[in-house]
Structure formats: structure tokens, C-alpha cells
């Protein structure tokens, strides 16, 4: 069985999920990207079919970001980037859920599950995953950053009517893997190439 392993930010995303997509590869999204609309890296439906995930990966390891996350401006910049991508990605989905003007352009590229507004039975989860050389150290400050991220996205969830059905997580890459996201460290390309890589399993 052929399995596509997609390299992104020093990690490999296993696209074996039956319903998954990358907005950056969607034809309907391309015109929006050209006018500054941001997007999260991956979307997929969990194996239990009850959870839809949007995932953003960021390499702040020594190879991917030499200055790491030591400086406060780096932390602030990271959160700003994550918030922008989350808000724009939610607006893209909301355009489909509520039949806004761009629905006909965006809907064909989305898996069926993502075309429906989240409910208690089919929640939406946003995961922001940071690759670090010292994951434990990042974990120690995660709660503060995670709360900040959630608070800045809360308004969009409220406006879209999904506050009860949308969860936001900020994880180091080890925690993300432990939580079951289909990720692994890209040993061959620690700096995080974005080129698709084909890998075959028996």
C-alpha cells in the first residue's frame, strides 16, 4: 500500500487518513492566497470519524530556526502567525458552512466532513505543533502560550457559532505524536523541506 509522507517544518505528515487535504494545494484557495489569506498546513479526519483536525507545523529547532524561541519577540511573532492562520482557516471553512460568496469556489476542494459545521458529535480541533530541540523546555511554557492562543481565536469561534465544538491545542512535536497526530520526525531533512516525498509500505 502506497503511503504519502509529506515533509513540512522538519516533520513528516502521514496522509493515510481517508479524508485529508492541504489548502495550499487547493485550486479554489489559490486566488485567496494571492491576496494575503493565510492557511494552516493540513486538515484531516481522525480515524474515529468524530473529529476533524486542522494542523499547523512550525520548526523552531536549531536547524529550522537558529534563534529558537528564547526572545520574547520570537514568542509574540509565533503567536501572531498562529492566530492569523487560525482566523483565516476558520473563515475559509465558515464561508462554506454559511454559504458565503466564496462557497462555490472553496467547497469542491474540501472533504465532505469539513463542509459541515462542527457539532457535539463531530468536533473541530486546531493543533499548533512546534518542533524543538528541547521539547520539555517548550512544554513548561506551553500553558501560558496555549491560553493566549485560545483567547485570541475565541472571538472567531463565537462569531461562527462553534465555540462549544472547537478546541485549540499548542504542543511540542513529541506531545503531538503522543496525542496521536500522524507525525514523525523527518530525520532525512531536519530543516523541514516542503517537497512531497513518496514512501511505500508493504
Describe this structure in words.
This protein is α+β, with helices and mostly antiparallel strands. The protein has one domain. It contains 5 helices and 9 strands. The strands form 2 sheets. The protein has a 5-stranded mixed beta sheet. A 4-stranded antiparallel beta sheet has the order 8-2-1-9. It is globular.
Question: Which short descriptors sum up this protein?
Answer:
single chain; 202 residues; alpha+beta; five-stranded mixed beta sheet; 5 helices; disordered C terminus
Gyration radius from CA atoms, angstroms: 16 Å
In one word, what is the shape?
globular
Give the tally of β-strands.
Answer: 9
Output the structural class.
alpha+beta
Can you give the mean pLDDT?
84
Straight-line distance between termini: 6 Å
Structure annotation, total helices: 5
Low-confidence stretches: 190-202
Please report which band the strand proportion falls in: under 5%, 5-15%, 15-25%, 25-35%, 35-45% or over 45%. Answer: 15-25%
Q: Give the helices and strands as they follow along the chain.
A: EEEHEEHHEHEHEE
Largest sheet: 5 strands, mixed
Going across the biggest sheet, name each strand in turn. 3-4-5-6-7
Number of domains: 1
Helix proportion range:
25-40%
